Amino acid sequence: MPDINILVVDDEKEIADLIEIYLVSDGYKVFKAENAAKGLEIISKEEVHLVLLDIMMPGMNGLEMCKKIRETNNIPIIMLSAKKPHPHRKRNRKRKRPRRNQNSRSQRPKRIRQTTACSPSFWLRR
Question: Which stretch of DSSP H or E encloses residue 32?
């Protein structure tokens, strides 16, 4: 497998460490950033093939960072969120498409293994 670099941007160190464990064990090289500014710095210095991005961070949030990335790059982005869907919308809601600048959205930490198991290989084939 060629070197595939994945950037994990999350203000919660434990979550970023857990994602890194799964990705490294699958053979990916992982860069971690605890905020959006450091994540953008890594993107400018390193060749990044995929970004796993937390939506709710202090300072610049994940949606703002996503817009910044899209100004210069077309790197696949998977947004991670700790928010749960509203309980009344669960029953009859239609599956929503990801927002305009993101490629995918996943609830964390419940779906971390699911995200790291299938998404990197799927998004990198594009």
Answer: strand 29-33
